[in-house]
Description:
Elements: E1 5-8, H1 18-31, E2 36-39, H2 46-55, E3 61-63, H3 69-78, E4 81-84, H4 93-100, E5 104-108, H5 111-116, E6 124-126, H6 131-143, H7 145-162, H8 165-182
Parallel strand pairs: 1-2, 1-4, 2-3, 4-5, 5-6
Amino acid sequence: GDVPIVINPRGLKEYIRNDTFFASIPLILNEYPDAIFLCISMEGKAVAENYCEQYQIGHAVRLMPSVSHTEMARLFQASDVVVSSSDHDGTPISLLESMACGCFPVAGDIPSSYEWVTDGQNGFIHDRTSPADLAEKVISALAQPALRASAASLNQVILQERASRVRSTERMMDLYRKAIQYFDGKGQRV
């Protein structure tokens, strides 16, 4: 229905900023008391359960098991905002998958996030150490359905251009052709 849904697909890996994520939830609930937070691969995990108890947010948090790719796509399509926050990372596939499903990304301020998200345009970048900043960005995203819709359209174009298998294969083949032209058969530059 009209209940805001925020999804965290990243699980409990050490480099994922779940401390920031869980600490942001009470701040978000102050503005959106009916919001639901889906936490993938956290069902039965003491760390996640402790966060829920510490912040008294268990009523709004769904600690979920690992899910299939098909179910993950359904969850992304049902969600309004995806939070992807880590201390370091390459491009998280879950970030790209969520963007492909129309979910608005709120990503941590690491270099790989800036490769895909232009802050304020097709998502938000947040200070990964600040629960207040993360909450502000999620609240802002939830408050702007037109921005979320615009970002979803823009993200389709970005992903089609930069992440589709066809475009990636074309770019890889161009790179190989240039490398072959650059070197002779003995590894010497021509």
